[in-house]
Write a structure and sequence with these properties.
It contains twelve helices and 14 strands. By secondary structure, the protein is α/β, with parallel strands linked by helices. It has two domains: 198 residues, Rossmann fold (3-Layer(aba) Sandwich); 170 residues, Glycogen Phosphorylase B (Rossmann fold), CATH 3.40.50. The radius of gyration is 22 Å and the shape is globular.
């Protein structure tokens, strides 16, 4: 099968985290299909009203990746210019030379909208996988109309969790399929059983806002008696200094280690030193980091905030209510005291069996076949 994958979120040299789960899907799909990725972005550092797009191309096996850059223009035409030039690139560099069997768009805007336009004009069936809260795209009337057009006309909609599906069905009459994100579980190794007197607790997430709940975790840890823990914090963002000061204000700065941003190729090393992983988010459509931790055999604590309810089980961790510091503190105490009751092999097997590449390929391939079969004449 020949698949054209469209996205504005994808890893590159400047950001190894952005869209890493989309990259992992592309890698898995390329094992059995020819996959062409078009990653498009706006260069906000440079202004050019009439300059054409520029692009780079890499190829490895069945996976071809294009990185397309369009310089910003005047505010009121920037989005139209971005969409037009991205479409122009796809038409000139790809569709004029070959016709993909299917277009897989990641995120409803702009990729989903572009895919729907190509579907209409070129008679190539398209589907969209949504990873984010839809209202995040409603930055203007124009954006909202683009989303509505996409949901009305695209062949299929995929949500990465049932909580996200429930949001999408309020905006679209089309059926929504749930296919969870992929985690390259083979990249992570089963870590040794806990033997140190100190419990090593991990947190990993962007620190550009407070959604991941690091403020809640720091406050909860300040309530734990004694100094029998070390909190390992991975992530960067504008609130980093704020959280460092918060740890100091709570008197736990010596028990908190801030690593800053951790490159994707070093992430397995970060998990390898942990006994517990905590994600006290206020909202999540999924929760890839929870599965990565589980792939190492690490039990997790997460909030009921959307995606984690469909990931965490009694054998793999503890679910608590969001914004509940008392519950979080109790969960940390409970898991720390009973850490040896969690079976690392069971936790890792659960992650592989439910979120590894093979189960993803089975589900997405079935959907691809259904879409192509229902669209025999293009």
């Amino acid at each position: 099968m020949n698949i054209l994958l469209l996205t504005h979120s994808y890893p590159d040299k400047t950001n190894s985290w952005r869209g890493s789960f989309i990259k992992e899907q592309a890698n898995a799909l390329s094992l059995e299909n020819y996959v062409t990725v078009v990653f498009f972005k706006v260069d906000n550092e440079h202004f050019a009203l009439f300059e054409p797009y520029r692009f780079s191309k890499t190829q490895a096996g069945n996976l071809t990746e294009y990185s397309v850059t369009i310089k910003r223009t005047l505010p009121f035409v920037n989005q139209l210019n971005f969409l037009f030039k991205t479409y122009k690139f796809i038409k000139e560099e790809i569709l004029n030379h070959e016709k993909p069997d299917l277009i897989h768009c990641h995120l409803s805007y702009p990729a989903g909208f572009l895919g729907t336009i190509i579907q209409k004009r070129k008679k190539i069936p398209a589907l969209v996988t949504e990873h984010s809260r839809i209202t995040n795209y409603y930055r203007s009337w124009f954006h909202k109309q683009c989303i509505n057009y996409t949901f009305k006309n695209i062949k299929s909609i995929v949500a990465v969790s049932n909580s996200l599906k429930n949001e999408i069905v309020t905006l679209s009459k089309q059926p929504v399929v749930v296919i969870t994100n992929i985690v390259e579980t083979e990249r992570f190794n089963l870590i040794k059983s806990h033997s140190e007197p100190i419990i090593n607790i991990g947190f990993l997430g962007g620190l550009g806002n407070n959604n991941k709940g690091l403020d809640l975790l720091l406050k909860s840890l300040s309530y734990l008696e004694g100094s029998g823990f070390m909190l390992h914090i991975g992530g960067n963002g504008k609130l980093l200094d704020y959280y460092i000061k918060m740890a100091k204000d709570y008197g736990i700065e010596t028990q908190c280690k801030f690593y800053g941003e951790i490159a994707r190729d070093r992430i397995a090393d970060f998990y390898s030193g942990l006994d517990i992983f905590v994600l006290p988010s206020r909202y999540e459509t999924f929760g890839v980091v929870l599965i990565e931790a589980m792939a190492c055999g690490i039990p997790v604590i997460a909030t009921r905030c959307g995606g984690p309810e469909e990931i965490v089980t009694q054998s793999t961790g503890i679910l608590i209510e969001k914004e509940n510091i008392a519950e979080l503190t109790a969960a940390l105490k409970n898991m720390s005291q009973n850490i040896k009751l969690y079976n690392k092999d069971v936790i890792r097997s659960y992650a592989i069996d439910n979120f590894g590449p093979q189960i993803f390929i089975e589900h997405i391939s079935k959907l691809y076949r259904e879409i192509i079969t229902s669209n025999p004449n293009g």
